[in-house]
Amino acid sequence: MKGPAEIVKKLALLQIGFISLVSEKVEEMIKELEERGKLSEEEGKKFLEDLKKLLISKKEEIAKEVEKAVREMNLVTREEFEELKREVESLRAQLEEIKASIDKGNEGP
User: Fold this and answer.
1) What is the pLDDT of residues 10-25, one digit of tens each?
2) 85-100 burial, b if ≥16 CB within 10 A, otherwise e?
3) What keywords appear on the UniProt entry (predicted)?
């Protein structure tokens, strides 16, 4: 079973993919309208610019929502995980030193 963070991430990617697909289809429709003379080239460009700005803001919104959802799940970040890993390795090394010191002391003179 996939964890909640993975599900949220996949949903966000799905939304972003959908936005990209919509953008492509709208561009095709605008080109078609321009070719038919129903829309001037300038109007088409303006519409596309506005649409792209809107889609970019939506992508950023989705990214922020995913970040927020992951934070609310109290999951550790990659950096936090790596830091904990380094701490465990350090503690493991210290423990080995202590064991070696104890073993050396138990051997006697």
Assistant:
1) 777 787 788 778 878 8
2) eeeeeeeeeeeeeeee
3) Coiled coil
Query: What is the full DSSP assignment across the chain?
Result: ---HHHHHHHHHHHHHHHHHHHHHHHHHHHHHHHHHTSS-HHHHHHHHHHHHHHHHHHHHHHHHHHHHHHHHTTPPPHHHHHHHHHHHHHHHHHHHHHHHHHHHHHT--
**pLDDT averaged over every residue in the chain:** 82
Residue 67: partners with Cβ closer than 8 Å, 6 or more residues away: none
**Contact (CB, 8 A) for 51 and 23:** yes
| pLDDT value of position 109 | 60
Q: 51: which residues sit within 8 A by CB, 6+ positions away?
A: 23, 26
What's the pTM value of the predicted model, to 2 decimals? 0.43
